[in-house]
Amino acid sequence: MEHIGMQTIKFEKPPTILETASIVGPKEAQGPMAKYFDQCIEDEFWGEKSWEKAESKFVKETVSTLISKSSISAQDIDYCFAGDLLNQCISSSFGLRELNIPFFGVFGACSTFVESMCLGSIFVGSGSAKNVLCATSSHFCSAEKQFRFPLELGNQRPPTSQWTVTGSGAAILSSSGEGPYITHITPGKIIDMGIKDANNMGAAMAPAALDTLITHFKDTGRKPSYYDAIITGDLGHIGKEILTELAETKGYNIKSNYNDCGVLMFDKETQDTHSGGSGCGCIGTIFSGYFFKQLKDRKMKRILLIATGALMNSTSTQQGESIPGIAHAISIEV
Amino acid sequence: MEHIGMQTIKFEKPPTILETASIVGPKEAQGPMAKYFDQCIEDEFWGEKSWEKAESKFVKETVSTLISKSSISAQDIDYCFAGDLLNQCISSSFGLRELNIPFFGVFGACSTFVESMCLGSIFVGSGSAKNVLCATSSHFCSAEKQFRFPLELGNQRPPTSQWTVTGSGAAILSSSGEGPYITHITPGKIIDMGIKDANNMGAAMAPAALDTLITHFKDTGRKPSYYDAIITGDLGHIGKEILTELAETKGYNIKSNYNDCGVLMFDKETQDTHSGGSGCGCIGTIFSGYFFKQLKDRKMKRILLIATGALMNSTSTQQGESIPGIAHAISIEV
């Protein structure tokens, strides 16, 4: 392990991403990425009595699928890192309470998936663990209910708003395996530019993504062109545009190889999701479903995965607070 | 770093706990531990307009005090690990948003302080960081409002209930220094014994504390008598009694050297706090205020610090769910 530059850690023995899994809900099943997920569920309740219980089931079943797909058993997983958007991260703790693996609860809002992978990779890279599990989830209905309005009200959504992805993504990191490897992590700082519009998360989080992006390049000496793909999740259409422009003003041209998981998840023309997808499950499922396979098939060889989070709640917004953003990055190479 | 037994990590280069700080509220100022804290605040709002903003101020000022007391500057702290009880951990993210240190949000309910120290110690012990900061907080008023009833209602509290500590505790872990050292960590599993009474957290969390306690002894080959003190936080009076009994049935006698931070914080006779203190700030302030000084002064040489958390929220309780518990342990030696 080597701390390089300001914020980056470089692995001498890079952990392998051994396997991933992803399960999504009905709206995601109609989107352009549907074929990449392990399973698409047609019922938002998934047979449960509440959306919260359904979200826990997404986590539980995704992790169960992941362990089945991997070559290792649950007993060989040393630690688990998980979190989600629900108050006190209940999707993760209820979804994983029967797992019987030491558990670290993580909260980074929509940055949780990459935050978990940062922490997990340090455990594996340092020899503290052989295998760790990273998991996250979100659910459109439980998130709307908690953060915005009762769904029954049928409130209008402004054009800047994003659509919380229903789904769960999970990954096993391992000390053995032939890649793709996590070679560097660049954990991010909290960046608050004073944006207060809780219906424009992309704008609130883009400055944090910019800060982590530039720090990663400075710390590693790499340029945007080093990567086959630079992927954020989930700035959405508006945040993606802001980040592209901000990066250009700082001398980094990311136009040709940059995309965002919130942009990729839904069809902008037909799915009525305004600025795109969001939620911990957005980057969680798209990385696990799509990008991991691209790396495994060597269609991509180097990606920079940056998850962004808005560290607010409905009370802080009601009390007039601005929205602090954060972004964590990992460099994944084959 | 060596993974020993089932769940424990032993440090080849144990991180030093370089410095700690603690600030508490008015009720804690009247309790038996008051003299050990850096500061006692007489106003629960601390001049802010809401309890949530006040709690953020507790975190901010505690971290500021900590950095002033330590021999290092904020720029020399590589990463920060923090979390709290408020929805989406806003006390930590708002309290630390100006800190300009890469930030990992952590959620382990009342186990958050030790969870942060587990994660931080792996970063330091592996050479990924030289210095890290671990912080947590809780606030009686913001917690009651969020988890139970509006304070204005003046609801009665059952005898099994605990009193959320108003306060923040924080520590700097460092690769250099002369101890006290974190020599082992034993992160815990989620344990759910089906207890549903949200007014009896001690009972819900005691089985998790037992599981981690026994696992720690088995993994390390140590016995209870190895430690000058075994400290949980925060099982309270009822949970402490349950853990003592449960441990005895498993062949571990901890009667002579075991105590709980929820028991230590308030005077049972005069302060009307029923089963004792609770909240992330309970073990956070008592370790930072009292036990750290005992270790520094060599009045204690070996302690096992076990923080317990109840991984539920008010929605899960309303939906009839039981309360999953968790407990993380660290062994601290001089």
Describe the protein in words.
The structure is a homodimer of 334-residue chains. With 334 residues, chain A is of the alpha/beta class. Chain A folds into two domains: 173 residues, Stage V sporulation protein AD (Peroxisomal Thiolase, Chain A, domain 1); 153 residues, Peroxisomal Thiolase, Chain A, domain 1, CATH 3.40.47. The first copy, chain A, is 34% helix and 23% strand. A seven-stranded mixed beta sheet of chain A has the order 1-2-10-15-14-11-12, sandwiched between helices. The first copy, chain A, has a six-stranded mixed beta sheet with strand order 4-3-9-7-5-6, with helices on both faces. In chain A, strands 8-13 form a two-stranded parallel ribbon. In chain A, strand 11, helix 7 and strand 12 form a beta-alpha-beta unit. In chain A, helix 6 packs across helix 7. The first copy, chain A, is globular and about 55 Å long. The mean pLDDT of chain A is 97. The interface between A and B is large, with 61 and 61 residues.
The overall pLDDT average of chain A reads: 97
CATH fold assignment of the largest domain in chain A: Peroxisomal Thiolase, Chain A, domain 1
- Whole-number total of structural domains of chain A: 2
CATH homology superfamily name of the largest domain in chain A: Stage V sporulation protein AD
Q: How far is the first residue's CA from the last residue's CA of chain A?
A: 19 Å
Query: Within the largest sheet of chain A, what's the order of strands?
Result: 1-2-10-15-14-11-12
Biggest chain-to-chain interface with counts: A-B, 61 and 61 residues
Strand content of chain A: 15-25%
Count of distinct strands of chain A: 15
Provide the structure class of chain A: alpha/beta
Largest sheet of chain A: 7 strands, mixed
Helix content of chain A: 25-40%
Tell me the name of the CATH class of the largest domain in chain A: Alpha Beta
Shape of chain A: globular
| pLDDT < 50 stretches of chain A | none
Number of helices of chain A: 10
